[in-house]
Amino acid sequence: MNPTFNQIIFATSPSNNEDDSVVSDCESVVSGAGVMQHHQQQQQQRHGGVMEMDEGVFVRLEEDDVLRKLITKRFLRGLGDMGLETKTEVLAIHRNSCSSVMAQARVRCFQVYAQAVAKLRGGVANVKYAWYGTRGEEEIREIVSHGFGHAPLHRHHRLCLYPDDSPLQSVKNSVADKDGVRHLLLCRVILGRTEVVHPGTEQCYPSSEDFDSGVDNFSAPNKYIIWSSRMNTHVLPAYVISFRVPSFTGIKKRGEPSRPSSPWLPFPTLISVLSKVLRSPDIALISKFHRDHKERKISRSELINKVREIAGDKLLIAAIKSHRAKKKDSRFLQARSKNCSRTVTNVDGMNSFI
């Protein structure tokens, strides 16, 4: 049986023990020549829009680094179904060095929770690697420094990440900077025992104490759902991959059926409708993404995906149907009014004729 991505990346870490690999991987770059090399890298200027990381936080992986090659290969292969594998340019991969006191504390916290979940779930913490699409360098710094508290959560207070072999949705969720560069976080995630969370559900915490996280599908999950109460203890940013990718406009997944071509609400109208049911921070975030789209920072499909992520398909469908129903009723009343007017005119005409 071929080894998994997680098993290979554990094997290339300084420690091959799953419970210790995160801590060892972070600690290994804090000593000796690793620090000197890292400090030298921080003096380099930005090249081609590649992120210049904060000193003491990230270590840039060299071109011939085994981990860089492994992550790059995994990332590009995951874009193959969209025909983007050969069109995407990986610019840099940085490793979270976890060198500050607080970063080390977060790593230790992650390890403690992994061990606790393993003890609770028959020895299996079910730790995976997963992708998170960021809005840019500033959000990465906020997450690494302060956790996912400011991340755009789903409206039901949950953080969505995507399996290491399925980066596409995270790529779509990411926001390109002025140079067209996007950044994804590759995170360690404690899944523990999972339960299926169906699309459109309003679930915002585990259905019982028997579960730790959610997935969209048991047999082949395309989404990991981490509840907001656990997003800063069960998720640990490990790597940042910086890349350029062509626009998604007109690109369809191989074998994917065509979507219905029914007209979509104008976004200002949609925002107005959603503002009646969503929280102000959610509406502000949707409005920001709408501005990004108008400024050509993100494509229309990316905007739609982000709105779906925030509002949920169930609410969007209900909002669109409600708006169309009201519009239809309004048109019906207008048409009936016009018909009535014509009837009166015709009757008057007949009377005058007679």
Structure description:
This is Inactive poly [ADP-ribose] polymerase SRO5. One of its GO terms (cellular component) is nucleus. One of its GO terms (molecular function) is NAD+ poly-ADP-ribosyltransferase activity. Keywords: Developmental protein, Nucleus, Stress response. The chain starts with a helix and ends with a helix. A nine-stranded mixed beta sheet has the order 1-2-9-5-3-4-8-7-6, sandwiched between helices. Helix 2 runs antiparallel to helix 5 and helix 9 packs antiparallel against helix 10. The chain has 354 residues and is an alpha+beta fold.
What's the main sheet like? 9 strands, mixed
Q: Which secondary-structure class do the elements indicate?
A: alpha+beta
Q: Name the helicity range.
A: 40-55%
Proportion of strand residues: 15-25%
Cα(first) to Cα(last) distance is: 94 Å
* Rg, Å, rounded: 25 Å
What oligomerization state is this entry in? single chain
> How many strand segments?
9
Number of helices, counting only DSSP H or I runs of 4 residues or more? 11
**Unreliable stretches covering 5 or more consecutive residues:** 10-53, 255-263, 339-354
User: pLDDT average, as an integer?
Assistant: 75
Question: Could you state the order of secondary-structure elements as H and E?
Answer: HHHEHEHEHEHEEEEEHHHH
Main location: nucleus
GO cellular component, one term: nucleus
Subcellular location: Nucleus
Protein name: Inactive poly [ADP-ribose] polymerase SRO5
